[in-house]
Specification:
The protein folds into three domains: 12-176, 2-Layer Sandwich (Uridine Diphospho-n-acetylenolpyruvylglucosamine Reductase, domain 3); 180-249, Alpha-Beta Plaits, CATH 3.30.70; 254-321, Alpha-Beta Plaits. Helix content is 25%, strand content 24%. It has ten helices and 17 strands. The protein has helices spanning 12-25, 75-84, 102-108, 115-118, 153-156, 190-200, 225-235, 243-249, 299-308, 333-346, and strands spanning 29-32, 47-50, 57-61, 66-70, 87-88, 125-131, 137-141, 166-173, 175-176, 180-187, 207-213, 216-223, 238-240, 264-268, 281-285, 290-294, 312-315. The two termini are 41 Å apart. This is FAD-binding PCMH-type domain-containing protein.
């Protein structure tokens, strides 16, 4: 099935020409789409290169569970097309605004509550088209899972924040929507919730989201109707509106209110780690593996605690609003060397979103 939409626009050549000119002039480019995730990363100084006009679902095959879509396509538009066929993006990406695009989803690599059970954004990428520093649009990968020789650039683009090239198109694996779903709220203290999640993780339960918030464990059950019904009966608890997971994904819960001026941190940790001794308030997502922290503790205190626990910490509050000047955890020297070498290979003049991730990249 090939989907062609009324607002389908191929602006690849115009984007290539802009990149060629920037390469000739050694002019930095600030690559933007819907800009709903502008807070995520360091500020970029450069000429704006917008991908919004390059949009449209180029190919969609519901039978093969694959879709190829241009980077400027609104994320809501893609999800609506998938929903019409009873399918979805397995990584459940956050939008943070109606203008969110597919390119922004790939650039940030952010995933929603389903991520530990279904996979991250990177796991669903099959191939991509990328404009290189020379202004050439090249295809990497394809529309099937296969081994890749050399750089797997399609997956390297996930989370790279546009620092390696301009993404113009991506091919994704999609998933069927579950036959039934039900959400539960179980009142219990944090440690009991973490223990229960560890126990249930060893059982074939149809859990696709788990979060501890406001003194209770919140669970989403998805799968076959009989399996969901049996698990609901077995676990007990109170019914929960399924909209809770959208509010958690989009950071619309009271915990994320802008009235709270304490910096917001995202901690990525092994899910069995008990509560960290950091002053502040925490929401536990991904069965404890992703933790949202509101704290006035110093960046060094928070990051040291996360590293000792086997994880890392990212500041979600822009520096201009009281956040950390370096939002991402500093790289180890050896890892930083590999990052610099890769950047030099794919962007020798440093024209693509310079400094977005780290000052030296």
């Amino acid at each position: 099935m090939t989907v062609t939409q009324q607002n389908d626009q191929d602006m690849a050549e115009a984007l290539c020409e802009r990149v060629r000119q920037a390469h000739r002039d050694k002019t930095p480019l600030k690559i933007v789409g819907g800009d709903t995730k502008a807070f995520y990363g360091r500020r970029v100084e450069g000429e704006t290169l917008s991908t919004l006009a390059h949009r449209g679902i180029r190919h969609y095959d519901p039978v093969e569970l694959i879709v190829s879509v241009r980077a400027g396509t609104p994320l809501m538009e893609l999800e609506a097309a998938l929903d019409a066929e009873g399918q979805m993006l397995g990584c459940e990406p956050p939008h943070f605004g109606e203008a969110a695009t597919v390119g922004g989803m790939i650039a940030t690599g952010l995933s929603g509550p389903r991520r530990p059970w279904a996979g991250a954004v990177r796991d669903f990428v099959l191939g991509s088209k990328v404009i290189t520093f020379e202004g050439k649009e090249l295809r990497f990968g394809g529309e099937v899972m296969k081994n890749v020789a050399g750089y797997d650039l399609s997956r390297l683009m996930v989370g790279a924040q546009g620092t390696l090239g301009v993404l113009t198109e991506v091919s994704l694996k999609v998933l069927p929507k579950p036959g039934a779903h039900h959400s539960l709220r179980l009142e219990m203290p944090l440690q009991e919730a973490l223990d229960k999640l560890a126990e249930w993780g060893r059982q074939p339960l149809p859990v696709t989201a788990a979060a501890w918030y406001d003194g209770a464990l919140h669970l989403r059950l998805e799968g076959g109707p009989s399996s969901v019904a049996a698990t609901r009966e077995h676990l007990g608890g109170d019914d929960l509106d399924n909209g809770f997971w959208i509010d958690l994904r989009e950071q619309r819960l009271a915990f994320f209110s802008s009235d709270d001026t304490r910096p917001l941190w995202r901690l990525s940790l092994p899910n069995h780690i008990p509560e960290l001794k950091i002053e502040g308030d925490t929401v536990y997502d991904w069965a404890g593996a992703q933790r949202w922290l509101r704290s006035e503790a110093s960046a060094d205190t928070i990051r040291d605690a996360a590293i000792r626990a086997g994880g890392h910490a990212t500041c979600y509050t822009p520096y201009e609003e009281g956040g950390c000047i370096e939002p991402f955890t500093p790289l180890a020297p050896v890892v930083a060397k590999y990052h610099r070498n890769l950047k030099a290979e794919l962007d020798p003049h440093g024209i693509f979103n310079p400094g977005r991730l780290y000052a030296e990249l």
